[in-house]
Amino acid sequence: MVNITEPNLSIPTVTRRDIERCSFSNWYPQFRSHTIRSKVLKPIPTDLLTYLRQDGLVLPPTVEEVASEDEDGNSAADDSSSGQIEGDGSDDEEAGEVPAAPDLTEVVAELRRLIGELGGAVFPKLNWSAPRDATWIASTNTLRCTTPDEILLLLKSSDCVSDDLSRPYREAAHSIVSSPIGQGANRTGATETTISADTHEPLAEADTELVLRKWSNLNPALEFRAFVVRGQLRAVSQMDLNHYPFLTADEPVLRERIHSFMQHTVIPEFPVDTYAVDLYVLSDHSRVYIVDFNPLGADSDTILVDWDDLIGEPNTADGGGNGTDDTLIHLFPANADGLRFSTGRYSQNRFPVDLNASNYQQSLDTLMRTTHP
Ligand SMILES: Nc1ncnc2c1ncn2[C@@H]1O[C@H](COP(=O)(O)OP(=O)(O)OP(=O)(O)O)[C@@H](O)[C@H]1O
After folding, report:
1. Residue 39: CB within 6 Å of ligand 1?
2. Region labeled Disordered — which residues (predicted)?
């Protein structure tokens, strides 16, 4: 355990190594018994990777065919709704402008097998990011997937996912730019030009991973982000930006559970000095689960916590912020009426105004024609 004797007043620098450590397959084996059951496809099969990196949003015919057969016992050719996502279909005048999708027959079969092994419903993500910005395109408006085509549509529609593939180390590069030249990870005498090239470095094919996590009906009120700076738990924040009155009453027990879990299970084992970890506490408070690890730096979402609370001098007697009763959980406060709802995270990525919710598929077709003229 590192002990802070001097306040560290600068926002931590994220290194490429920190980012790599937070990649799902790097922490999952170690914390398997403390997190949601998951399956990892690493590397992502070449055909699927090609498909995800291709421009345009087109579902390969194989996917819909297989999915239709799976659900109805009929082929997609009999289903007049198949191919709608493609917009105008393959035999109209615009078909030549849509890039041909690779054959994903094997990928689809593998995804279906994994979905089955995980109980029939999964939450998909890549190394770091889930397609949370694309839920608007899913018929359920969630990331809950029961078929391969739902997974492919979400992954293909997400900027978060495409950033994981095309600019995975962007946060490290950003931090290096804001640091004195020469202090960044593995760099000496670097110029800004050299550094900014890092932001465009794509993820090597061998490092790509598709993660399917067993779908879990998480209560957003019981999700918390814990912040560890230089090996010390500095703060815990509620994640959902809504006020839940019961959290105020439960705060002492939640705090004790989270602090204990962090001190005994996470901090001694996770090989990064400074990070944020998302946690889920069961409603009876009996267990704490890890949802995700994230690097912690200037680009991080600290939610309800100020950077001063993370990097300023700890205001505790032992100076460590390690006890169970010295770091209150930051809870979303009630407004004057005692109740307050806010817009959720990623709400800006929900249904685009161009789409008419009362006629979703027709509107989606229209959008596709617009985006793929
Ligand atoms: N297996 C699951 N089943 C249902 N919901 C889940 C599951 N895993 C995660 N979630 C929900 O999705 C949210 C985002 O998950 P996760 O942190 O893995 O994605 P992310 O892209 O890294 O998000 P962020 O960038 O906000 O950290 C979680 O906070 C949780 O609410």
Report:
1. no
2. 65-103
61-72 vs 105-117: helix crossing angle, rounded to 10? 40
- Spacing, Cα 341 to ligand 1 middle (Å): 20
Query: In ligand 1, which atom is closest to the CA atom of 216?
Result: 3
Q: Are 145 and 111 in contact (CB under 8 A)?
A: no
4 alpha carbon to ligand 1 midpoint, in Å? 32
Nearest CA to ligand 1 atom 25: 129
Q: By percentage, how much of the chain surpasses pLDDT 90?
A: 60
> Are β-strands 232-238 and 329-330 bridged in parallel, bridged antiparallel, or unpaired?
parallel
Euclidean distance between CA atoms 344 and 125, whole angstroms: 20
**Which of 37-51, 78-92, 136-150 bottoms out in mean pLDDT, i.e. has the lowest?**
78-92
- Using the atom order of ligand 1, give the atom closest to the CA of residue 36: 1
Angstrom distances, CA of residue 191 to CA of 10, 15, 66: 21, 17, 51
* Pocket lining: 216 vs ligand 1, CB cutoff 6 Å: yes
Ligand 1 mean position, distance from CA 43 (Å)? 21
ipTM of the complex: 0.99
Mean pLDDT of 303-327: 70
pLDDT digits (tens, 9 = 90+) for 181-197: 333 333 333 333 334 44
Q: Is 141 helix (H, G, I), strand (E, B) or coil?
A: coil
Cα 24 vs. chain centroid, distance in angstroms?
10
Helices (runs of H) and strands (runs of E) counted in the chain = 12, 8
